[in-house]
Amino acid sequence: MSARVTRTVSSPAGRSLASSRVRGNLVPQDKGAIVLDIGHVHTKLGVSGEPAPRYIVKSEVLMKPYGEILNVWDDKYINREELYLILCRFLHKVFLEYLIINPREYRIVIIESIVSPLNFRNTLAKALFIHFSVPHVCFLPHPSACLFSLGSSTALLIDIGLKETSIVPVFEGVSLIRSIMQTTTSTSSLHSSLQLLLHEHCQVKNIANGDIHPLSDNKDLELTSSTLSNIIMQTCFVRSLDFGDATPPDVCFPINAQFSLIISGLVRCHVADILFEGCDGDVSLPISLVESLLLCPIDCRSQLCENIVVVGGSASLPGLNYRLLEEIRLLCGNSRYQCLDALKFKFHELHSHPNYTAWQGASIIGAVESAILERSITKEDFKLLDYHLPDWMSCNSQNWGSLQQVSPQKIPSSQPGKVIQTVKSGFEQ
Amino acid sequence: MASIPLALEYKRYVLYLCRCSGLVGIESLYFCRHCKLLRCMDCVSVQIDGTCISCPSCNDSVPQTDAKAKKFRCTHCYQCPMCTTPLATRFVQLPPPPGKSESAPDTSSGKTDASPTKEGTGESTALTPKTSKRLSLTPSSLKSPGSTKMYYLFCTSCHWTTREVDIPDKRSLLDFKEKPHPFQDRYKALLSYYKDLDLYERVSSQNMSRQVSGRKPRPFSSLLDTSKYKKDPEVQRVVKQVQSVALSAKDPVRLPDSYYTEPVDVSSLTTIQQKLLDPSHQPSHVKDLWPHPLPLISRKTIRCRGCDHILLKPDVNVNLVRFKIQHVAIQVVPRIRLINVPKLTLGEPSLVPVSITSPVSYSMTISFNQLSSSKKLKEILCPAVIPEGSFVLKSLDDTSDLLDDSSQSVSLGADQSDYVLSSEPGRIVLKFGAIPSREDIDAKIGFEVVFSYEPLIEADRDPGVTELTVPVIINCGHSFA
Ligand SMILES: [Zn+2]
Ligand SMILES: [Zn+2]
Ligand SMILES: [Zn+2]
Ligand SMILES: [Zn+2]
Q: What's the complex ipTM?
């Protein structure tokens, strides 16, 4: 299928250009790129040109010789110098224990979230360039990475993270930054909702003697976040509104050798409701989605709605997309969203599991050597920048810059960007 | 890079302060003979030793190129998808195909094997493929050339087997191949699509940018934006083809009613950890689990970041735990130990007994200085009382000791004996002091140890460097009298 393009472009000029670029660079033979997506819970790590990461591991590192396990995003260290050491040790584990490669022989592609803290990016770059002396690092924005994996240039991206969900509309390859919506309704809201519901409705069964008592009586039974995510993934699903009040059967969930939880059917189908109600005063997923659409130029909306993509660990909850559509349809009845009523909402089927969609896209583009090298920052660049990345790295600043140049002609009646806060306040009544 | 506060939050009695201001135990310190410097794990450069890649289960050494092709996983060892234990291999003797069946009766050996298809048990259960290979050479199996062995995998820890999930027995261990990625074809199509787009963009922009000098790097969005190819029907067709798959977005499917009616058996579902062991498939049911090839491990070569000399090089033989080159601090630095956790008195000098052991074969002169370090560290430490003057530690194997008239193994100045609690060849116990200022936190003292250094190799001898210094921090706890 690609033969035609190859024929068109494999003119002598094209060949010489491609080869001269390769010759001019420090990496003589293409070994591929190491692709890293350092998430809040799990890190996806692998090599470009492969459809799935080699490992998905916890973003944690054991701080030898003191013996504490630290998450690389630990709030305590995120803005401190110690982050450098934590990241060095973590990357050491990634490169030398899991991937078994010498990082200085590869180019590195890092998927970065649109909200990653400045100190984290800087420290990560420092660790890669100084501690591991890698030649090139490319910071690939998460939305672009997801689109590469789809092979599409337009999508309305919903990324459900641990602490935040972001809705990013991407039109013809350009992220519409003015229309990005963020809400704290995310995986951690699911966890807190589950914990609450469990304490209200669930009972603990003592496996040895068969005693059953409410969970709220059992104070010392601690539910770790990994137990909570397992309960959600194994027993819960997203109820669709048209099912009415049907209650699924209870499920027995063993917690340890002594106790198992009897998870009531009510909890199983209602835990995900939090995503559609909003959490901690922040807006729900469907509202942030339609709000984001309202902020998009009218001409883009129909294409965006027909290309909704849900990614992130919690995106694999059964029934999520269906309920999302139901809720959006309900909202369209509201006078504020009347203008969206005529639109068709369609959801993409991913060619990956939703927890590594971005990684897969980065792995595709990481294999296109010239494209990555052109958009990478080198060790020398980093030195010239006095070991501080610009707010958005060269490739990204171009991205944002180009948006401003392109948008006036391409996007006709761009609405003035609204601060997310004002939207939120509008919804508190 | 200052990791001091982080490190001091943990309890470890004696830590050495590296020049990179990391605090480490002595076992993580390396010594570069060329720079005459001590370096910790965080300020050396660690590299994969391509000659020392091996499988932790069968101990086979794997050449780097082979390992790379197999994504650094063993070709014939597998990991349990339930609990990650290396799987044991078991086999079944199948009778030879009919026609040459004269040897059929003695195909199976062993006490329990009554029928030819009986499973290999006991002796024929091999923990590693290596032993099973050895077993296959036993006389009984040689006697039955027509019979075939069928392998299956078994977890000795959680008893999961490949039969449990209906994976048929295989003729060879190599046949438990990984399943391909479910969307491999789509992935490959996208890969070549973006390669083409990049090349096309490169060529067309080269034609354009002849006039414009100083071309800036394009953003990633330029690769995604296909609207600019509208004028080019050839490219447009390819773009359409790829996007037609992408644009097949659908209405989401309503969950089947079974979700509301069917009971759920948690034991038949995989946990998130089990799913993530296989990123490509992430099976959610136990019945879909598949054995994973076992990840290989590698030994590392450690080099000095200053001069690139090798500090640690492992032996090529992966079965031997030894090193070709090993320059570590325990070979030259006196070992400092806290004899017991001292009883402290607030605001007064409290006795801290510290033992110092010399690892070298020459007489080591040792003295102590107050720590001349950063403010940050001083805030954490409390004032220390340190022994004055220098002490000479004679080596353990120094026989001159026996010939010498003086039985004293440590030479002391006149007023120095006050500091000494006990002494023997190569070891001395000295009195240090701590003046704790707070009762709620651990009292920590810091001092510099200055010790003499004589290189073993003549070439390394440098008249300028005869002594080395290493700062030590001792955590005296907070048990107050
Ligand atoms: Zn160091
Ligand atoms: Zn092996
Ligand atoms: Zn097992
Ligand atoms: Zn050196």
A: 0.83
